């Protein structure tokens, strides 16, 4: 028998948790929609981190947020030309 | 130099006017000099919530149109020292009010008073822009439901763009019972989403409705939970450090259930 306490009491997921999850998604989208600077900022910060590992030309980078079902997916293409040699680092 | 704080929300009916009235009165009870400015032009309510509607002669529009001096347009609240109201025009001449007008009024008032609380209309358009034009800081009021929180997030973005800082959050109409049984988001949930500083949580309190009926702000009723919450927020606005009590009230059964489901 593999019944959880929740199933035993016939509990549905708490509606407050559902509200929170839905809000987080929609607000993410709202913020991107209204704030063009958001993507630019994200782009810069991601590029900064990735540049430690790869070499890529800034102009080839593509980023966008797309919706799939009830989640949003950040799709980022950073085509790299060279992989930095990590053995040089501690 | 006084502080100008806009009380705003995005969504209507979440408690901006109630919060402005109670925080203004509470600050005056704490010995501060305060002006409550109604910026909800065409839908003014702060005067009636404060119980001062019969004494309003001039409005901010009369000041803008130079029909009267700013000082003469202020209605003195006789129940407490240092509390004034500047009413909004009830005529639907919204377009006559410009952000520069509101800014000029706020800049003038701040030379004399400690706190200027501006009660904003709902929405993100003209009325909001006018209300926030002279503000140094903001209080964003939300209720713990999806539409109010989503709209609060929009407003927070606009306030941040306008470099209004700090932006403090009031969670209004909080119900410990509903949070306890999992049908209302708690403080942590709301803060996790909105990511700004919390200045207080005001419980759902039927006293808000009866006090509004009478035109006597709730904070005069010492014992009520809503009054205590507003008094604590007012103290925080004056710089006192007062912890935010956990209003969450879990029944024994739901606590046990939570414990089991978390630890299983
Ligand atoms: N904490 C509370 N408990 C119970 N009723 C409240 C509370 N806060 C506000 N209300 C009620 O909600 C309604 C809307 O409040 P109001 O302050 O006018 O909102 P807003 O100015 O944001 O439109 C009013 O009827 C008010 O009495
Ligand atoms: Mg209002």
What are the bound molecules?
Answer: adenosine-5'-diphosphate, magnesium ion
* CATH architectural grouping of chain B: 3-Layer(aba) Sandwich
Most extensive interface, chain pair and sizes: A-B, 20 and 20 residues
Number of strands of chain A: 4
Shape of chain A: elongated
Structural class of chain B: alpha/beta
The secondary-structure element order of chain A is HHHEEEE
Helix content of chain B: 40-55%
- Please list the strands of the largest sheet of chain B in the order they lie side by side: 3-4-2-5-1-6-7-8
The H-level CATH homologous superfamily of chain B, spelled out, is: P-loop containing nucleotide triphosphate hydrolases
- Residue runs with pLDDT of under 50 for 5 or more positions of chain A: none
Overall description:
The complex is a heterodimer of chains A (90) and B (264). Chain A has 90 residues and is of the alpha+beta class. Chain A has 3 helices and 4 strands, in the order αααββββ. In chain A, α2 crosses α3. Chain B has one domain: Rossmann fold, CATH 3.40.50.300. Chain B has an 8-stranded mixed beta sheet, with helices on both faces. At the A-B interface, α2 of A face α7, α9 and α12 of B. Magnesium ion binds next to α1 of chain B.
Topology summary:
The complex is a heterodimer of chains A (90) and B (264).
Chain A: H1 5-8, H2 15-34, H3 36-50, E1 54-56, E2 62-68, E3 71-77, E4 80-83
Chain B: E1 3-8, H1 16-29, E2 34-38, H2 46-49, H3 60-64, H4 70-73, E3 75-76, E4 83-86, H5 99-109, E5 115-119, H6 126-132, E6 137-142, H7 146-161, E7 167-174, H8 176-180, H9 187-194, E8 197-203, H10 206-214, H11 225-237, H12 252-263
Parallel strand pairs in B: 1-5, 1-6, 2-4, 2-5, 6-7, 7-8
Antiparallel strand pairs in B: 3-4
Helix pairs in contact in B: 1-11, 5-6
The structure holds adenosine-5'-diphosphate and magnesium ion (MG).
Magnesium ion binds next to helix 1 of chain B.
Please give a quick description of this structure.
The complex is a heterodimer of chains A (90) and B (264). With 90 residues, chain A is α+β, with helices and mostly antiparallel strands.
């Amino acid at each position: 028998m593999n019944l959880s306490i929740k199933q035993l009491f016939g509990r549905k997921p708490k509606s407050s948790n559902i509200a929170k999850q839905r809000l987080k998604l929609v607000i993410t989208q709202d913020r991107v929609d209204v704030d063009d600077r958001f993507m630019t900022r994200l782009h810069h910060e991601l590029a900064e981190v990735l540049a430690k590992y790869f070499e890529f030309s800034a102009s080839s980078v593509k980023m966008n947020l797309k919706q799939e079902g009830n989640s949003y997916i950040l799709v980022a293409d950073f085509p790299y030309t060279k992989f930095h040699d990590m053995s040089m680092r501690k | 130099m006084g502080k100008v704080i806009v009380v705003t929300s995005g969504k209507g009916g979440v408690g901006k006017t109630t919060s402005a009235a109670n925080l203004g009165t509470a600050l005056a009870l704490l010995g501060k000099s305060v002006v409550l400015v109604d910026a909800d032009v065409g839908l003014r309510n702060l005067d009636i919530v404060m119980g001062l509607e019969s004494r309003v002669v001039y409005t901010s529009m009369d000041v803008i149109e130079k029909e009267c001096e700013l000082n003469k347009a202020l209605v003195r609240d006789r129940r407490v020292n240092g509390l004034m109201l500047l009413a909004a025009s009830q005529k639907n001449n919204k377009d006559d009010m410009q952000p520069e007008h509101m800014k000029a009024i706020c800049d003038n008032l701040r030379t004399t008073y400690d706190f200027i609380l501006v009660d904003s209309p709902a929405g993100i358009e003209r009325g909001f822009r006018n209300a926030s034009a002279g503000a140094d800081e903001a209080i964003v009021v939300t209720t713990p439901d999806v539409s109010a929180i989503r709209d609060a997030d929009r407003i927070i973005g606009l306030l941040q763009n306008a470099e209004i800082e700090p932006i403090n959050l009031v969670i209004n109409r909080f119900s410990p019972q509903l949070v306890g049984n999992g049908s209302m988001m708690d403080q942590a949930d709301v803060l996790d989403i909105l990511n700004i500083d919390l200045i207080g949580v005001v419980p759902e309190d039927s006293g808000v409705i009866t006090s509004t009926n009478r035109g006597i702000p709730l904070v005069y009723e010492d014992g009520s939970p809503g009054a205590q919450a507003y008094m604590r927020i007012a103290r925080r606005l004056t710089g006192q450090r007062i912890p935010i009590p956990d209003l969450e009230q879990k029944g024994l059964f739901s606590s046990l259930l939570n414990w089991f489901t978390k630890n299983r």
